[in-house]
Design goal:
The complex is a heterodimer of chains A (112) and B (512).
Chain A (H helix, E strand, L loop, with lengths): L4 H7 L7 H6 L1 H34 L6 E3 L2 E2 H39 L1
Antiparallel strand pairs in A: 1-2
Chain B lengths: L2 H24 L3 H6 L6 H12 L2 H14 L1 H28 L4 H9 L2 H34 L3 H49 L4 H11 L16 H14 L4 H4 L8 H32 L2 H7 L6 H50 L6 H25 L5 H25 L5 H20 L5 E2 L7 E2 L10 H18 L6 H13 L6
Parallel strand pairs in B: 1-2
The chains are: A mainly alpha (112), B mainly alpha (512).
């Protein structure tokens, strides 16, 4: 790989891998796409879900109505945040297995 | 003095010193010192992350807040937990793939300039120091209350112990002290929760019903709005909680203690389960304290409610449970401060000394020696600061650390990995502006200024109305990073970004 010698010296990285070629490869683009398609929508979802609770409790009293017994909807929503967090954790762990397989493929291709 | 508590304190201190002894025999290289040679398993690191996270502020503070303010205290539990989704989805794996010992390593992996490393180290040291002062102030108050030892001596005892763990045992000892403490803390909390639940005939519905009349707040105890009345302040706090964790240096360095990104991910998942179960139990701690200790007694022991959990243990379990919970609270503080000393010391020794002063030419042995001296220096500095901070509100210092972490560190972490145009100027501007704006807003806030004498550090009208600066300073941090990038004439190195993209996503990198 032709590389700028001064940069190579400065960063102390031996310029043996062509990262641009890897980035442009089909497998790598697939990995990026798959990650983005999972992480972006779910991150937006959990942030919205998370902030709905303080927004509702700060600007309204709707969550103060009782769900059952003496437990109000505010508490149900609060517990739902825990369920949400755990569920998204499990979903990510499952999904990440497909990322790992792609990473393996990319590394193998790069090493030729 | 409670003799039983004192004996349990000694047993725990003895146990941690044994761990440190064995760890010290394995701590020879810099990799051993900073990262336990990346040898932890996912489970071990999961417990250690949980241990780092369930600090005295979580354990004692949240239990007290739920006991005194009902629902509002639970906001902290929710925010602290949901924050792990940010860590898991966005930060943990790229950080593990790009970094080596410190957060600055990750940023320097892309920009490789001294400025970036210096500013990142400055942020790490600032955040860790605030967090550490908070823990030390809490430790001093707790030990004074439990053992009757003067604040001065309490802080010095804790300070000496934390220095010993870090200097001799490095990350190996710090991790194992964390793991042991996290297991003890979960066990103690679980026992208290079961006893509390038993008192309500194992019915959560019955517990909520009785809580309507158990406190001076009456039915309002179960509703939001007792502590956080200003909507903007509530949102600001929630924002800092959910984004702060992903920028806390002592949590971030934990990802370097595992061998790869897959293990880093696993450890976050384990930590999320442990931390989540713990924070669910803060309801039993808080409700139990409110019902069986009572508002007046909690306030009398400590105005901020920090003694609610130990007092509850005493009320429902007698002397032994009280002694056990107190000793665990003590171990919690020791473990967390050790983690903080290590994160600040590695920023000093690895980033300032190793890379900036010695330009990366220091030998392995010199680096370990530097790291040990840095640990001693950091410890002495924070002990002195903690002695001055005796009367400061602990929650203020912790929220400050979270706000600074979210404003100064998170934007840079995110842009380093995801933004192609991001450049050195943007990184430096973002980190400095995030740090300064969050600090400045806190110093102008009601935490520091109050018209009522004794309510804050200075008497006077606060210039900034919110107790937590997050809602203003976090966007400022992001905007400064963007503005710094766009305004600078220097173009980002596209080839370098390709390298970062590959390394962050696959862990592949050229040998250095």
């Amino acid at each position: 790989m032709a590389s700028n010698d001064s940069i190579a010296k400065e960063t102390k990285v031996s310029a043996s891998t062509d990262y641009t070629k890897i980035v442009q490869s089909k497998s790598f683009q697939e990995l990026l796409r798959k990650k983005r398609n999972f992480i972006v929508p779910l991150s937006i979802f959990f942030m919205v879900f998370y902030f709905t609770l303080p927004l509702l409790t700060s600007y309204s009293k709707v969550l103060n109505s009782i769900a059952f017994g003496a437990i109000s909807w505010a508490w149900i929503f609060a517990f739902a945040q825990f369920i949400m967090t755990w569920t998204l954790c499990i979903l990510y762990s499952k999904k990440a297995a497909t990322f790992d397989r792609l990473v393996k493929k990319i590394v193998k291709e790069a090493k030729g | 003095m409670n003799i039983l508590a004192f004996i349990l304190f000694l047993i725990i201190v003895g146990l941690t010193l044994v761990i440190t002894y064995f760890a010290s025999r394995r701590t020879k290289t810099t990799a051993d010192f900073y990262t336990a040679d990346s040898s932890l398993t996912g489970w071990q690191n999961g417990w250690a992350i949980a241990g780092d996270y369930m600090s005295a502020a979580s354990f004692l503070g949240i239990a007290g807040m739920v006991a005194l303010s009902g629902f509002d205290g639970f906001f902290y539990s929710i925010g602290f937990l949901v924050a792990y989704l940010v860590v898991l989805y966005i930060v943990a794996e790229p950080l593990r793939n790009l970094g080596k010992y410190t957060l600055a390593d990750m940023i320097a992996a892309r920009f490789n300039e001294k400025k970036v490393r210096g500013v990142a180290a400055l942020n790490t040291i600032s955040i860790s120091t605030f967090y550490m002062i908070a823990q030390l102030v809490g430790a001093g108050a707790l030990i004074k209350l439990l053992l009757g030892i003067d604040y001065l001596y309490s802080v010095i005892i804790v300070g000496i112990l934390m220095t010993v763990y870090v200097v001799f045992g490095g990350m190996t000892a710090t991790s194992w002290v964390q793991i042991v403490k996290a297991v003890l803390l979960m066990a103690g909390t679980f026992i208290i929760s079961i006893i509390v639940l038993a008192k309500f005939d194992f019915s959560v519905i019955e517990m909520f019903k009785q809580m309507k009349t158990a406190t001076p707040l009456g039915g309002d105890f179960l509703n939001p709005g007792n502590k956080f009345k200003d909507p903007l302040d509530t949102l600001s706090l929630n924002l800092a909680l959910v984004l702060g964790t992903a920028g806390l240096p002592h949590i971030l360095i934990r990802f370097f203690t595992v061998k790869d990104a897959i293990t880093a991910r696993k450890s976050v998942v384990y930590a999320t389960w442990i931390i989540g179960i713990f924070y669910i139990m803060t309801i039993f701690l808080g409700f139990g304290a409110a019902a069986f200790v009572g508002y007046d007694k909690i306030i009398a022991a400590n105005a901020a409610g920090n003694m609610a959990a130990p007092l509850l243990a005493e009320a429902i379990g007698g002397d032994f449970l009280f002694a056990f919970v107190s000793a665990v609270a003590f171990a919690t503080i020791l473990a967390v401060v050790a983690g903080l000393v290590l994160s600040a010391a590695s920023a000093f020794a690895h980033d300032f000394y190793g890379h900036i002063i010695r330009k990366g030419q220091a030998t392995d042995k010199e680096q370990v020696v530097a790291a040990r001296w840095a640990s001693i220096g950091v410890s002495i500095l924070s002990i002195i600061l903690a002695l001055f901070a005796q009367n400061m509100n602990v929650a203020f210092l912790v929220s400050l650390a979270f706000a600074v972490a979210a404003s100064a560190n998170l934007p840079i972490i995110v842009f380093t990995v995801f933004w192609k145009r991001f450049n050195t100027a943007g990184a430096v501007t973002g980190m400095l502006v995030g740090l300064i704006s969050s600090l400045l807003l806190v110093f102008l806030s009601p935490n520091v200024w109050s018209p009522v004498e004794g309510a804050a550090i200075f008497v006077g009208e606060p210039l900034f109305p919110l107790a937590n600066p997050g809602i203003i300073s976090i966007p400022i941090g992001f905007i400064a990073a963007i503005a710094g990038t766009l305004l600078s004439s220097k173009k980002a190195d596209a080839k370098k970004f390709d390298e970062i993209l590959v390394t962050a996503n696959t862990g592949m990198k050229d040998p250095i």
